[in-house]
Each structure stands twice: as C-alpha cells, then as structure tokens.
Amino acid sequence: MKQGAFDYVTKPIDPEPLIALVRQAVQRGREKAELAMTRQRLEETELRKRAILEGSLDTIISIDEKGRIIEFNPAAEMTLGYPKEDLLGELIVDRIFPPSSRERYRGAIQQFIESREEGSRLGKRHETTLMRADGSQFPAELAFVPIRLDGLQVFTVFLRDITDRKRNQETIARANVRMRADLEAAAKIQNSLLPHRLPTTRRVEIAWEFHPCQELAGDHLDVVRLDYDHLGIYLLDVSGHGVSAALLSVTLTHLLASHPGQSLLVEDEGGPNPSWLSPAELFQQLNQCFQLTENVGRQYFTITYGVLNQNTGKLRLAQAGHPYAIL
Questions:
Q1: CATH classification of the domain holding 155
Q2: How far is C-alpha 123 from the geometric centre of its chain's CA atoms?
Q3: What is the CATH number of the domain that holds 238?
Q4: Is position 260 within any domain?
Q5: What distance in Å separates the CA atoms of residue 24 and residue 158, rounded to the nearest whole number?
C-alpha cells in the first residue's frame, strides 16, 4: 500500500466496492488485450507493406513536398545505381532526371503544391528518359502519385526500367518491316501468275479485274487455251487470307496451267488434238488430290470452271461451292 497500490478493499469486505473493483480490472484487461491486438495488427500490416515494398521489382520512392527523398525500396538501388545513403534527403529531380528535363518536373511538382491541381506530369503514367548514378540514360515508365499523409503532402514515385521493352519493340518493328517487304514481294509473285496476256479469240471478248482485300489472297483466275476451238475459264477462292491461302492458290495455279505434263486440264498435249477434261471430270480429279482431312488442316477452296466452244458459243460450266456465275 505504501508503494501505491489502489486496487484493494478493507475488512470487513463490502461486496459493492469489491464488485466495482473487479469490473474495473476486467475492463482494463479487455482494453489492454484490444490494444495489444491492435498493435499486432498494425505490425502485421506494416510487415506486409514492407514485404511488398522490399519485394517489388519496380522502383518505389517516397519524397516530401520539397522533392527530397525520404524512403525507397531495394529496386531503386539496383535500377539507379545509388547506395541508400547517397539518396536519402537528396532532391529526386537532381538525382534521376537528366539536366534537360529537371526544370519541367520541378515545375510540375511545384504547381501541384501551390494549386493542388495535377499537372501534365503528375498522377499519370508516362514514358520518359531517366539517368543512373553513372550518368547513363535509360527509357523508363514513370508516375508521380500525390498522397496526403497526416496533414503533410508527400509523393510516391513509381519507376520502371523499360529498356528491354523498348529493345523488343524495336526488334518487332524491324521484323514487321521485313515481313511487310516479304509479303509485298510474295504479292508481286502471286500477281505475276494472273493472266497478263489473254488468248486470242474469234467470237468472244475477255477481260478481268482483281481486287484482293490483303496483300496475299487465296483468289485466282485464268483463261487457258485447251485446243484451237475451246477455252478453259476458271475462278477459284481458297478459304482464309494470308500466306497459307496464297500458297494453296499458287499450287492450284500450277496444276491448272497449260504446262506440258503438269496440267490437270489437258490429258494429252503431245498430239495435234489434245484431250481435255470436262468441268465435272476436272472436279473429280481435284477432289481426289485435295482431301479435307485432319492431317492437312481444314483449309479448302471453291471453284467455278467452264469450257467455252468458240465456234458455237456454248459454255459447259460446273461449280464447287463457288458463287453462281452471272449470265
């Protein structure tokens, strides 16, 4: 009691003061437990935040309203090349920005502090050029995020080195240029297979026009002399677009050309009276050559083929999945 005890009762014991003291003790115990739990939660929250900060691959820097560095994560040391003691308390503008852009960012920070309105370089993620400790510059993705903390204005700076991304973008751009050149060259080859010189005819006029929707297409047409009196005329369209459609179209073009020993249109080109296939017979041959199976993919083609008798004007026409011809 001489040392200051106050939670006691005197004899004889009065139940009311005793119950009041017990209630006070229980309440203080609860408050103490709640305080301990709150402290534990705060510590756990701080540990989680610290783990996120320490484990982040991006550079995270905290600066005060004067632009001085007050905290940063290990990624900042790795990205910028500064030891921790060389960054704390330093002006971020003078440390990470090249001399040519320092004033712009210094003005943006000052504008926000004075007007509380985010300038063009605050609160938004954008690409810029930053500087390492050794003076080398690198492309970066940067964002200044203003935060109000206990009545103080601070900023969190998120920084990401995008050197690899830029290098990959340049590699992809160069590859796209080469691919575009290759596609244009392939399109020229494909266009060269179109009938630039049509067979001379006695009773009909022939003309054509071709408008592919891409550089490479699966469409083709041709007019082939079968014998002195007959012309073969076809239109075909391979499903899809691009390289695969163009390759199949070129293959069909060779098979349907009038080259000796290679054409499906003419059976015997050696004699004076070559034997040519009717449209139905040609389609039977094509159907046997190009079976739609899982091994060769699901690509197919449609075709219209006609044999024109120049003497009579009669046209024998067949079509396989292709739009109807207009008479």
A1: 3.30.450.20
A2: 25
A3: 3.60.40.10
A4: yes
A5: 50
Give tens-digit pLDDT for 223-246. Answer: 988 888 889 999 999 888 778 888
SS (H, E, C) 32-90: HHHHHHHHHHHHHHHHHHHHHHHHCCCEEEEEECCCEEEEECHHHHHHHCCCHHHHCCC
Please tell me whether residues 139 and 203 are part of one structural domain.
no
Residue linked to tokens 């060769």: 296
- Concatenate the DSSP letters of all residues of 194-228 into one string: S-SSPPP-SS---------SSSS-SEEEEEEE-SS
* Position 230 in a domain: yes
Are 205 and 252 in the same domain?
yes
C-alpha 144/C-alpha 233 separation (Å) is 68
Quote the number of domains for the chain: 2
The helix (run of H) or strand (run of E) holding residue 284 is helix 279-289
Could you tell me the end-to-end alpha-carbon distance of the chain, in angstroms, rounded to an integer?
121
Identify the band that residue 274 occupies on the pLDDT scale cut at 50, 70 and 90.
Answer: low
pLDDT band at 318 (very low <50, low <70, confident <90, very high): very high
- Residue numbers of the domain that contains 106: 56-164
